[in-house]
Structure to design on (365 residues):
């Protein structure tokens, strides 16, 4: 080969090599350069069945991928252009095309939604709130309560009170059953632990009974300071084989019929949940108890109280008046009535004495 031709070929090879190196440097700079500057990150949804081309077009339109050509080169080098995982992603500050591609092909770093279960809810209300959550897949909508418990591996167990109140994170489109499963398992794990450390000598023998007591405490007071006291009242009455006479159990039994007032027919109804008619505990919890109520049920305060009445039913934060004897309780109730109505109000007076005599028509909570 002539020297001139050799020099030309070497120049071409040199130019090609420089071009390749330049391309490689630019490519690496693109691949590992930050494309997200917002400290809150950027959310992006990969829809079910989306193609890599449509995703690349979207990312280009969002000004995340400024050089689609380089991005497509990387995709083809990885040979996983058909491995996109659908979901709602959060690309954090500092995201690069390299890390972005890893996210949407591995299904990591998704944006998480939250669902909060509130202490005091019953299972019916929990299901209603779940069904209103737009970002969940409503798998349980056509399932019965029993079917849900079968899915959780506890076909013979009531769902009432079995789901720990907490905030749970989920990805868009997750099944609501996954929320229920996590909440159920958390309640099981927590209760198994605290049950082992319970105070000895309690008048309930099973975890179900203890959880039921916790639910009664949860519904009776919103005040943490009162929960161990009310737990002690329940323990004292159970040991004396007294009727518990807890209004929330009557309300629970009344269900949708309850309109804010407990009527005589509810107090006289022969329901296993009516603690004005049946001694002992209801057969299941009546609501979801929080951790403070659970601890109170397993570690009640020791005292001589057998009675309590709300100081002001319109202001729960005022708490309850606790009494040792029935006479003290009668006086406490009359004080509450006279404070709320300084004049003689026959309806209010009758609302209390129905608990004792059962001779009137209405008991106002």
């Amino acid at each position: 080969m002539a020297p001139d031709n050799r020099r030309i070929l070497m120049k071409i090879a040199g130019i090609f090599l420089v071009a390749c190196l330049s391309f490689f440097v630019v490519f690496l700079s693109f691949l590992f350069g930050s494309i997200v500057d917002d400290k809150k990150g950027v959310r992006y949804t990969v829809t079910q069945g989306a193609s890599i081309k449509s995703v690349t077009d979207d990312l280009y339109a969002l000004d995340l991928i400024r050089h689609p050509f380089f991005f497509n080169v990387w995709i083809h080098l990885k040979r996983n252009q058909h491995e996109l995982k659908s979901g709602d992603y959060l690309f954090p500050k500092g995201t690069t095309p390299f890390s972005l591609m890893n996210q949407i092909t591995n299904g990591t770093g998704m944006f998480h939604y939250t669902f909060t279960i509130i202490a005091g809810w019953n299972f019916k209300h929990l299901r209603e709130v779940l069904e209103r959550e737009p970002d969940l897949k409503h798998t349980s909508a056509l399932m019965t309560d029993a079917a849900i418990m079968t899915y959780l591996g506890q076909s013979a167990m009531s769902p009432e009170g079995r789901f720990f109140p907490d905030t749970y994170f989920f990805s868009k489109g997750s099944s609501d059953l996954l929320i229920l499963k996590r909440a159920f398992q958390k309640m099981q794990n927590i209760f198994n632990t605290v049950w082992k450390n319970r105070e000895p000598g309690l008048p309930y023998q099973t975890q179900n009974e203890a959880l039921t007591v916790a639910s009664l405490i949860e519904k009776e007071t919103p005040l943490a300071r009162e929960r161990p006291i009310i737990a002690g009242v329940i323990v004292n009455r159970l040991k004396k084989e007294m009727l518990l006479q807890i209004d929330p159990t009557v309300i629970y039994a009344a269900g949708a019929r309850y309109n804010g007032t407990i009527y005589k027919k509810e107090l006289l109804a022969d329901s296993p949940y009516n603690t004005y008619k049946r001694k002992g505990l209801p057969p299941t919890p009546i609501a979801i108890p929080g951790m403070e109520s659970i601890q109170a049920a397993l570690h009640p305060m020791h005292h001589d109280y057998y009675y309590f009445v709300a100081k002001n039913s319109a202001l729960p934060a005022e708490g309850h008046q606790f009494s040792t004897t029935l006479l003290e309780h009668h006086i406490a109730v009359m004080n509450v009535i006279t404070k709320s109505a300084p004049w003689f109000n026959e309806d209010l007076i009758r609302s209390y004495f129905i608990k004792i005599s059962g001779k009137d028509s209405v008991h106002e909570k």
In short: Confidence is low (pLDDT under 50) at residues 357-365.
